[in-house]
Amino acid sequence: MIIGTAAERLDAREKVTGAARYVSDLVVPEMLHAKVWRAPVPHARLLGVDGSRAARSPGVVAVCTATDLPVKRLHYGPAFKDQPILAHEIIRYAGEPVVAVVADTERHAAAALALIDVSYRELPAVTSAAEALAQGAPVLHPALDRSGHFRDLSGLRPVAGTNVCQHYHYDRGDVARAFAEADLTVEDVYHYPALSHHALEAHCAVARVDGDGLTVWTGTQHPFPVRKELAEVFDLPLAAVQVIVPLIGGAFGGKCYTKIEPLAAALAARVRRSALTITRHAVTVRLRTAVRSDGTLLARECDVVLDTGAYADIGPRVATKAGYRAPGPYRIPCLSIDARCVYTNNVPAGAYRGYGVPQVTWASESQMDQIAERLGLDPLAFREKNLLKRGEEYVAGDTPMDGDMADALAQTGAAIDWGRARERGRGVGLACAMKDGGGTHTVSTAAVRVNADGSVTLLTGSVEMGQGSRTALAQIAAETLGVPLSAIVVESPDTSITPYDHGTSASRSTTVMGLAVEAAARDARGQLLELAAKFFGTEPEKLAIHDGVVACGERTMTVGDVVSGHFGLVGGEVTGLGTFVPGTWSGSLGGATLFWEVGMGAAEVQVDADTGEISVEKYVSVADVGQAINARECAAQDEGAAMQAIGPALFESRVSEAGHLVNPGLIDYRVPTFADLPRELETVLIENRDGPGPFGSKGVGEGGTFCPAPAIANAVARATGVRIKDLPMTPERVWRALRDARGTRRG
Amino acid sequence: MNAITMTVTVNGEPRELTVPTHETLIECLRERLGLLGAKKSCDVQVCGACTVLLDDRPVSACTVLAFEARGKTVRTIEGLACGDELHPIQAAFVEHGALQCGFCTPGMIMATVALLGENPSPSVDEVKHYMRGNVCRCTGYKRILDAILDASRRMAAAPAPA
Ligand code: FES
Ligand code: FES
Q1: Tell me, what's the pLDDT at B160?
Q2: Which strand (E) or helix (H) includes residue A270?
Q3: For residue B129, how far is its CA from the centre of ligand 2 (angstroms)?
Q4: In-domain check, residue A80
Q5: Distance (Å, rounded) from C-alpha B93 to C-alpha A722?
Q6: Are residues A627 and A502 in the same domain?
């Protein structure tokens, strides 16, 4: 059995010896380097660029503005073609690339940047979603051009003449009546800050243009969508654009879709350390819930506003998904949801691990505890009463709940020792959430090549960004084919060689690509058995393959001998192909949910009443993975996700003032370090083999980010009686809340 | 352009190099010597991805000038394994799943070499304190902590070649 074991990662040795190669390690002959001059103001009209002094600077090969780029289309974007490769006429955020300098070395390019003169006239800036929605706000994109790249984005609803680039609405039931008849109504506004991914490897792309077309090496999570975008920018056939993705040094959504590739390609040079910042959306959620005194949820109204910054990127989809997921994993008869994605003059925000779920879960799971407290109910029992049961529909027409959430909640409670009373200043809290996993209507294809020596080449478009997809996919292929894991070599995505894949996001690789790999391996296995049957003079059904050996009763032959024997040479190979195309196209998202990614969490905290400091003594993260393909890596994914989300719970956020990002780099932007590791960090994997993926697996990797913030806030509330509604819960914020609570009590 | 000629021992091998005075150690290692194991991430001495050992002390190669290595020894991740045999710290990282994207790993491992050189059997809190300058965005640190503690036990049981 190869599935379910903690097999060593295929890339572990190269990574601990320093032999692993990333895009930023790539050296292409005659490579040049580019640096960009970035806008110093959030909103302005460009009047002119004087690059003549920069052009005369040592080593400089070219100084380019938007009009100098040899492209057919200047604008790109996965939802709307609203983002220019370099700012054209208008600057829409501070930090936007305006001029690019290409030189023989990075140092020369950087030195020349200081010699560029740009003149511009400042325009009034829209620095928050609230300002963008206000009457009379400047409209940042008066006309929008849909990209038409993704099926689920064909139904986007921008609101003409405003800054709203997507308005998702859903309702069911008689919401007004439910509120009128409720025993209790709770309403609050919650805020989740904007975040930076800060993957350790910065965005990096290398491009080469030659007679055959365009080749780009880049650390993207979406090689095939990038190829399509580049084909449109340069008006080339897809086959003339080659996108190659080596190992990536972390991504977390920050490397989704097209980022710096068009600029790199347009400059046909290397862009290094371009801190092209794409962030998690700052979100404000207004949430109102109606409940009966016995704890039955009756209705929820959710109003979600996302600040997507100057360009939409994938914000419209994040808004849709955030809206879809805002009510939480519960049975709620009446719903009214609005989610709006709003343009501002802030840095563009895009995909970030969890895709809106951490933000809406912050609101909904905080409010669940507030309701439980008001009704005098135990928060765990209150949730359990309302959780969707297996087979129950979340939204009519979408895939019913496919897991056992009550069991997951019970395990969460057990792991944190829920029932035990805590001393003063200590508290436990929990939260639960789910997300439609696997992406909406996405396709994957895989090829398995069985070579004449029995080794196997696995071709997929899944990007290895640290999550261990190569290892998991190799395990699936090895198990299905009947060869040892060591026989498998997984190739890096290369759009000219590896078959089509939608992209590496939405926790989809193990499930969706996994199914394609399983199908390809089955195809190859079937062919091998046919060939072997001829040698044994029997039927394929009578044969078995195990550990690279085909057996017919007592007689055996290696897989390699079957292939080379058939071709009569040492050459030749057996090729298996597999494709996954989703079947049902129902559901309010334009495609049925593939699986529900369930994530729960519980925290035990100690709050220092004098300083407001929260210390997380223990955090338990619970993930329903269906069946772990690689148990160690599943748990590791979940742990890493939880730790990442402890950052914005306690201290991490992007701070902007008047449209200027105050903490762009790691010096000022605080991410979790070793010192923030809770005394105990535990992961519980739930394996009921009930997922749609190979061997009953479900996707994993995002669920751990859903619950830390509300679980910690709920624990703080139970420890101190103080409810925090804005993140991060810095000592200052907690201390002020404690002081205010004391004040009220005295008064 | 000012340049300095110097002798420096890199992973046990003496090298004679002429480097411009503004060249950083990370540029020297990666671009001049082709040692791509050490990574450049923040470039401002806060992430630890570029950690190498300079006379056995951990330094951020992004903010050390190459000529500061004059007459000293530099040890990088490439100089750790003995042929195919992993150093016990590397082996512990592999076994504990202490890496995901691997971009922080060379720096993390070199910082661990320094830690265990100074303090062969650190406590949990000592590890957390010593390693706080090495950022990992993927793993959540717990497995790295486990790997470091395990490596310290292994090395105590069978002292590795220095
Ligand atoms: S790159 Fe040197 S410390 Fe970050
Ligand atoms: S493994 Fe990715 S940053 Fe540490």
Answers
A1: 53
A2: strand A270-271
A3: 18
A4: yes
A5: 41
A6: no
Confirm whether A702 is a catalytic residue.
yes
Tell me, yes or no, whether A358 and A240 share the same domain.
no
**Rounded average pLDDT over B26-30:** 96
Domains annotated for chain B, with CATH where assigned, are 3-79 (3.10.20.30), 88-157 (1.10.150.120)
Is A423 a member of any domain?
A: yes
- B104 lies within 8 A of chain A by CB: yes
Domain-ending residue, one of A580, A610, A635: A580
Six token digits for residue A450:
């069985």
CB environment A220-233: b (16+ within 10 A), e (fewer): bbbbbbbbbbbbbb
0.85 surpassed by complex ipTM: yes
Taking the C-alpha atoms of residue A124 and residue A71, their distance in angstroms, rounded to an integer, is 31
pTM of the model: 0.93
Distance (Å) from CA B135 to ligand 1 centroid: 9
**Average pLDDT by stretches of 10, chain A with 747 residues:** 84 95 85 89 96 95 90 90 94 94 88 95 95 94 82 79 93 96 96 86 84 84 91 92 91 76 74 38 83 96 92 87 90 95 89 80 96 97 96 87 93 96 93 82 90 94 89 94 95 91 78 92 96 94 95 94 87 92 53 83 96 97 92 92 95 89 87 95 92 87 91 97 96 96 70
Same-domain status, A594 and A654:
yes
CB A168 within 8 A of CB A159: no
Our count of domains for chain A comes to 3
Other Cβ atoms less than 10 A from the Cβ of A568: the count is: 8
Is the residue at A184 inside a domain? no
Strand A270-271 versus strand A33-38 pairing type: parallel
Check: CB of residue A699 under 8 Å from CB of residue A437.
yes
The pLDDT, as a whole number, for residue A747 is 45
Neighbouring-strand partners of residue A279: A196, A349
Q: Looking at the structure, tell me whether residues A293 and A264 fall in a common domain.
A: no
Overall average pLDDT of the B15-41 stretch? 96
Question: pLDDT value at position A745?
Answer: 62
Q: How far from chain centre, in Å, is Cα A245?
A: 17
Q: Does residue A671 form part of some domain? A: yes
Catalytic, out of A491, A617, A702, A732: A702
The residues in B 65-84 lying below 8 A from A, measured between CB atoms, are 76-78, 80-81
CA distance A288 to chain B (A): 34
Nearest chain A CA: its distance from B156 CA (Å): 21
Minimal Cα distance from A13: which residue of B?
A: B94
As given in the structure block, the two tokens for residue A267 are 């400059």
Does A247 sit within 8 Å of B137, measured CB to CB?
Answer: no
pLDDT of the residue at A666: 86
Q: State whether A216 and A298 are in the same domain.
A: no
Residue A218: its H or E element: strand A213-218
Domain of residue A432, residue span? 280-439+587-746
With contacts defined as CB-CB under 8 Å, which chain B residues touch A673? 132-133, 135, 141
